[in-house]
Amino acid sequence: MSDYRIKSHPILIDESEATVPFYWQDKLFYAKPNEMISSALIAQGVQVFRHHVKDHSPQGIFCANGQCSQCMVFADGLPVKACMTAVKAEMKVKPADGLPTLPEIYEPIPTMDVFPRYQECEVLIIGGGPAGLSAAIELGRLGVKVLLIDDKNHLGGKLVLQTHRFFGSTNAVYAGTRGIDIAKILTKQVEELSSIEIWTNSTAIGVYEDHVVEVYRDQQEIIRVKPEILLVATGARERSLSFAGNTLPGVYGAGAFQTLVNRDLVKPCNNLFIIGGGNVGLIAGYHAIQAGIHVAGLVEAAPECGGYKVHKDKLARSGVPIYTSHTVLEARGNDKVESVVIAQVDRSFKPIPGTEKVYDCDTLLIAVGLEPVDEFCRVAKTVGMDVYSAGDANEIAEASAAIFSGKIVGNEIAKKLGKELPDIPASWLETEEILKSKPGQVVPEQHIDKLDGVFPVFHCVQEIPCNPCSSVCPKDLIFIDEADIRHLPLFDEQRADECIACGRCVAVCPGLAVSLVDFRKKAQTALVSLPVEQNYAGIAVGNEIEVTDTDGIALGNFKIEKIKAVAGYKDGTRLLSIEVPIAISKQVAGFRVIQASQVKAFEVDSEFLDDLEDDAYICRCERITAGEIRKLIKIGIKDINQIKAVTHASMGACGGKTCLNLIKRMFAAEGVALAEVTDPPIRPAFVEVPVKDFIEHTSESAGNSR
User: Which end of the chain is flanked by fewer CB atoms within 10 Å, N or C?
Assistant: First the structure.
């Protein structure tokens, strides 16, 4: 029996065992307690969950967040999302091929005589991620009665997927702490506040004219909640991307990949290729390396990666080839991804024939941006509710910004409820803007002139909000302007002799962009210490590694002299030391762990490129291609409702969550201004709910209502 579980990870520890028996197509498998069906199946090597009823195409997971419905299976005879449904003992799971078998004899449904349970609260918070938790803490400390709901079985949102240390302010948003640990900190604070009621496994399904929010709790009960104030902290959903083969099993959103690797410790692939050079794609690539997965390459359509340069540098130093001004043309494979075709693009982002490359890979990770999950907020405003939004539901930014925006919104809501509080300090608003800010310009790397003693070297060359290195130095030798933490760190050369080589600045850096250079041992060489937290068999004392500069350019092979822990850092980061010539000592910034992938030549003509573009699927649920929709746009249709009527696009199980924005992008690509395009209406339910759970009736056996 195949086992694709991650047994060793430099950061994560999971000692739980797969002990829950279940059946996949009558074959016995085992899942971990509370594990989702999708993760349990992929841990056994199952990538194809069903075949689409329209064309029998293989279907696997895409978002792993309940947004797309591509992972539908039958569990004990009922259609469910595999990524949102936990395995139960002896559960019988089968592919959702065709329709479920209906019973020959129907049990009569008792006469409906009750209505859904009703509950009031001062504040209902939808979403238990960084923004929702932070707002709940502020409200709970003031004694406000809060109901906090989240559709997962745990709080933390995307924080539970983040094994890297966070940027931002150490004092304001736990910078220098890993996302997984920030989730635990915030969750503990919320759970300790008596005025906060928490419902996990609870999904908001609609907002109504009577200012009621319906909540589907524990996949068995609908509860009508009426708050005085609604706070929407639902985060973001990932954008999809249209290219030939984009629905093959093995094409994942970045969040799905991180869910498998970092939350569930499942290794979904051996050879990953990444599409998108923003922070999400760059971070997910590094998470893959931490999990021992080969990263074949990354493409970004823009001339430069949009994420923090320190994130890009981590991949470049590790040996991952990064192709800017490139795009993906096609994912190839039969039942799953087997290779990817990429090409260079011109200034109009059109593929340039003759620049194609083919990479072998078994998974494509799509990270081409996020969109706010804001339908709750929009409808609530339409019906006149008192509603606020925070985090990505309000504005896409880093999780550190979401934490701080939740704090601000929590205080604003408390004031609205009559709590006597001072106005939001101007410094808070300034901090929020700094945390939301885009990365600054890249400047040349500069080193101090010293060639004696010991001191840190900073390889961060782009202004971003970050100050952990200055906050951990026991001698206060590192400075960052506290009024604007986007400034680059500076080392106090006048007091350089006070450096004790503790390595804390190296270990705490979220970008792994600090090295420690020690000239005290020998005359012609220096001992360079680098942070190490990768899962790579070659990292051992006595082995040689290839070291690189900040941009990933090789500087030579050198023997690992020692590997040691850093005092106060027991969460995975260690110091790896090598002895190098003095001439390159300040350039050394990392080491290579990824070997070069084989690239195949591939040539196409422009006609073939046009066919590929039309073959891409826009609507995953209904299997509607770009070519079908483009024909309608070209004949002058500007109302998405008409496109729905003709093709059924956006009418599938996901309710248009993955395709509507792709359709809008197609209008823009065809030269149609979006102001001229008519959107379809948004109606509840926003999330799929079994019809049986809308039926409230008296239970004959228990004598109470459901």
Answer: N
DSSP label at residue 261: I
Three-state DSSP class for residue 566: strand
SS3 of 300, please? strand
| Domain total of the chain | 4
The answer to whether 550 and 589 are in contact (CB under 8 A) is yes
Calculate the alpha carbon distances from 705 to 108, 113, 220 in Å.
Answer: 16, 9, 12
Give the separation between CA 426 and CA 448, rounded to whole angstroms. Answer: 36
Q: How many residues does the chain have?
A: 706
1 found inside a domain: no
Cβ contact 267:6 at 8 Å = yes
Range of the domain at 677: 616-706
E-strand ranges in 174-257 read: 196-199, 202-207, 213-217, 221-232, 236-238, 251-253
The CA distances from residue 99 to 79, 121, 333, 613, in Å, are 9, 41, 27, 32
Shared domain for 249 and 226, answered yes or no, is: no
700 shares a domain with 629: yes
CA distance 4 to 492: 49
Residue 316 lies in a domain: yes
Distance from C-alpha of 486 to C-alpha of 467, rounded to nearest angstrom:
8
pLDDT, tens digit, 9 for 90 and up, residues 502-548: 999 999 999 999 999 999 988 899 999 999 998 877 899 999 999 99
The token pair at 311 is: 């994130």
Picking from 407, 435, 463, the residue at the C-terminal end of a domain is: 435
17-26 mean pLDDT: 96
Calpha distance 151→343 (Å, rounded): 39
Vertex 628 angle, CA 626 and 629, to 5°: 65
pLDDT, tens digit, 9 for 90 and up, residues 384-437: 999 999 999 999 999 999 999 999 999 999 999 999 999 999 999 999 999 999
For residue 660, what is the domain's CATH number?
1.10.10.1100
Residues 247 and 231 in one domain: no
Q: Is residue 11 one of the residues assigned to a domain?
A: no
Instruction: Tell me if 632 sits within 8 A of 641, measured CB to CB.
Output: no
Say if 377 falls within a structural domain: yes
Whether 207 and 159 share a structural domain: yes
List for the chain the helix, strand, coil content (%; round to 5).
Answer: 25, 30, 45
What values do phi and psi take at 553, rounded to 5?
-80, 130
Omega of the bond leading into 244 within 30 degrees of 0 (cis): no
Please tell me the distance from the alpha carbon of residue 195 to that of residue 137, in angstroms, as a whole number: 10
Q: What is the pLDDT of residue 698?
A: 43
